[in-house]
Design a protein that fits this description.
Layout lengths: L3 E7 L5 E6 L2 H10 L5 H4 L4 E8 L2 H13 L2 H11 L22
Antiparallel strand pairs: 1-2, 1-3
């Protein structure tokens, strides 16, 4: 069964980006390498700090909208509940010990 993900990317200054994808590995790689021009490449959103898995795309999209509508402090509280040190959850996914594929 296909899975869908709502995720939060961050950078060295802890800016947040929330998105949805059906291929978390591919999408994180795109963020890390700056493959898609725009906000995430401009702000070097290269750390996966939070994600949730869903069976239905509509549930993932609804969660994305819910998270985006929250105040920043509530988003931070949610991710720090599961990832208090803001570790890169994709560390090691791409053959690099820290998965920092771009310099900051």
């Amino acid at each position: 069964m296909k899975e869908y993900y709502t995720y939060i990317m961050s950078n060295h200054s802890r800016t947040l980006y929330i998105g949805v994808t059906s291929d978390i590995g591919q999408r994180v790689w795109e963020h890390k390498t700056g493959a898609i021009k725009g906000f995430t490449s401009r702000y070097r959103m290269n750390k996966l700090v939070y994600y949730e898995t869903f069976q239905k795309v509509n549930d993932a999209i609804a969660r994305e909208k819910q998270l985006k509508s929250r105040l920043r402090r509530k988003k931070v509280a949610l991710l720090e509940e599961r990832n208090p040190d803001w570790d890169d959850l994709s560390s090691g996914w791409f053959g690099h010990p820290d998965s920092s594929l771009r310099s900051e």
